[in-house]
Specification:
By secondary structure, the chain is α/β, with parallel strands linked by helices. Among the domains are: about 20-50 and about 370-455, Luciferase, Domain 3 (Luciferase, domain 3); about 460-560, 2-Layer Sandwich (GMP Synthetase, Chain A, domain 3). It is about 30% helix and about 25% strand. It contains 18 helices and 27 strands. Helix 5 (about 125-140) links the parallel strand 5 and strand 6 (about 140-145). Helix 3 crosses helix 9 (about 260-275).
Length: about 575
């Protein structure tokens, strides 16, 4: 692999950052506002960050070759991977030795070649990063899925992607179709691949940056599960941004996010390429995450919003020595300003770096320093090399600074498209190739991006549109409310064409709180316009959320049936 990387990579670490076409265009266009990045002539927003030089698109280069070229020679002496549960560690030389051996075995014994698709069904482990790198070095496409998925869900994903092989652990292997060849990751057969003697130099596979590297599964903007196709260049571009803007030494990164998730997948690749140490966790509890952060001197924690909220509120966060922690990278779902302020008050030396991205778009925005982290309602500045526009969801008109509309982007990190779903591709891309995010957003006069809500989740009350996320932030600000979610509900007593949907809140009380439904409604009503008021409240023990921290609103709707009784607050 090292020889392939040396031959294929032209990335010069000493050359620094040179302007991309986007930046040159911004410098030459005097009408572009250097404060907001908005160009009124083209009605587009440019990133305010220095553009990052990427390898020429025509240069054959796989992500593993790129990653190896990014590392010093000799390879770093600190661990590449650490198992949070067992403390087992894998050094960088051992990591790449295993990658080479596994790639050789998968090609020579399993017959995997460029363009094959490998379906992966496994929790996080030290073997998963090795497997990802081995597959990608062969030009095999990695398609990781949630091992908690049902057999029928998995069958649909397999029909969609048509893999030639599957990798699984024995506990979930029965969910796979019987006619799909599978290799068990917890078998002696798989472990023997690491011991295989490479009888000849690893096959030099000419992998193009435009080749598919991964298929990641997403509900996108239309609700049903879809297969997003991402290229080697997408992951190279995303990692280059972190490399170019790096401001400190090597990190010890704790990754509680599942490795099949888009964030977990990217951070797995990126952390190795940056020469950092990745602490691998299989979806630990909050207490387990805190203990691992202390034990391994974690400097960077990737966290979904529930973890950030728990750190800000729970007394259990304080007994751990988190003095090494420098940054918490939070993404996946909005976090309230109240929660962000509590976190910053409790951990004043830790930067809460909020970011925004998607399976389809890759990384879109993030915060990278103390000053940016002060903009707690935002999700940071547009990432390097990202071009954006804000579009009116009904008229299609491109909007200006401070105006709310659907965020559309062009970026080297965005997907090629959905596999086997022409309808979804037509809905997701406009005629000029802009990717529609499905998110209602705006960009302020300083270039900071703000997420208002998902367009499809807006509540249609009479003639108004009510963002659930806005009401959730208000609810989270109450000292008597631990967690909350808002969904649209319809009351059969009132014709839908007259009232439409009403905002209904599901509330988790703080321990000891006796706040009532009326008090919750009044608390919100005092802080929002009349049409945004919460008009029904249900108290629950917890809010169902995805691994990324997104509220599972459909589950909330399914567990509650609106009674056919008058609602006084209509």
């Amino acid at each position: 692999m090292k020889s392939v990387a040396a031959e294929n990579s032209s990335t010069d670490r000493t050359s620094g950052i040179r302007p991309s076409p986007f930046l040159l265009q911004m410098e030459q266009d005097s009408s572009t506002d250097r404060r907001s990045g908005f160009c009124p002539e083209k009605k587009t927003f440019h990133s305010l960050r220095p553009a990052v030089d990427l390898p020429p698109p025509s240069l054959p280069l796989s992500f593993p070759a790129f990653a190896l070229s990014s590392l010093p020679s000799p390879l770093p002496s600190h661990p590449a991977l650490v198992d949070a549960a067992t403390s087992a560690a894998v050094s960088f030389p051992t990591f790449f030795s295993r990658v080479d051996a596994l790639a050789f075995a998968l090609h020579s014994q399993a017959g995997l070649t460029r363009g094959d698709i490998a379906f992966i069904l496994s929790p996080a482990s030290l073997d998963i990063p090795v497997l990802y790198f081995a597959l990608l070095s062969l030009g095999v496409v990695a398609a990781p899925a949630n091992p908690a998925s049902t057999s029928s869900e998995i069958s649909r994903l397999i029909r969609l992607t048509k893999p030639s092989i599957a990798f699984s652990v024995s506990s979930v292997a029965s969910k796979l179709p019987y006619d799909l060849p599978a290799i068990l990751l917890d078998s002696s057969h798989f472990r023997s691949f690491f011991e295989v003697e490479i009888s000849h130099p690893p096959l030099a596979v000419a992998i193009e940056q435009s080749d598919l590297a991964a298929i990641q599964f997403s509900s996108g903007t239309t609700g049903r599960m879809k297969a997003a196709a991402l290229t080697h260049r997408s992951f190279i571009a995303g990692t280059e941004g972190f490399l170019a803007l790096r401001s400190s030494g090597n990190d010890v990164t704790l990754l509680p996010a599942p490795m099949f998730h888009s964030l977990g997948f990217f951070f797995t690749l990126r952390t190795v390429a940056m020469g950092d140490t990745l602490v691998v966790m299989d979806r630990g509890t909050f207490q387990g995450i805190m203990r691992a952060a202390e034990r391994y001197g974690v400097t960077l924690l990737t966290a979904a919003p529930p973890i950030v909220v728990a750190m800000a509120r729970s007394e259990e966060a304080l007994p751990q020595n988190l003095s090494a922690l420098e940054r918490v990278f939070c993404g996946g779902a909005p976090i309230s300003q109240n929660a962000a302020e509590r976190f910053s008050s409790r951990f004043p030396t830790v930067m809460l770096c909020q970011g925004y991205g998607s399976t389809e778009g890759g990384g879109i925005s993030r915060m990278i320093n103390v000053e940016e982290c002060r903009h707690q309602n935002s999700v940071g500045l547009l990432n390097e090399n990202v071009l954006a526009k804000i579009v009116h969801p009904l008229t299609g008109e491109s909007l200006s600074v401070g105006q709310q509309g659907e965020l559309c982007i062009k970026s080297p990190t965005m997907m090629k498209g959905y596999i086997g779903d022409d309808e979804a591709n037509r809905k997701s891309f406009d005629a000029e190739g802009w990717l529609k995010t499905g998110d209602l957003c705006y960009i302020d006069e300083n270039g900071f991006l703000y997420i208002v809500d998902r367009l499809k989740e807006l509540i249609k009350y009479k003639a108004y549109q009510v963002p659930p996320a806005e009401l959730e932030q208000v609810l989270h600000s109450s000292p008597e409310i631990q967690d909350a979610a808002v969904i649209p509900m319809v009351n059969c007593r009132y014709p839908q064409e007259e009232v439409g949907q009403i905002p209904m809140a599901f509330v988790v009380r703080q321990p000891g709180s006796k706040i009532s439904e009326l008090e919750v409604m009044d608390y919100v009503a005092n802080q929002v316009a009349p049409y945004k008021k919460v008009r029904k409240v249900a108290f629950v023990n917890s809010i169902p959320k995805s691994a990324a921290g997104k509220i599972l609103r459909k589950e909330l709707a399914s567990i509650y049936a609106m009674p056919a009784t008058p609602i006084s607050r209509l």
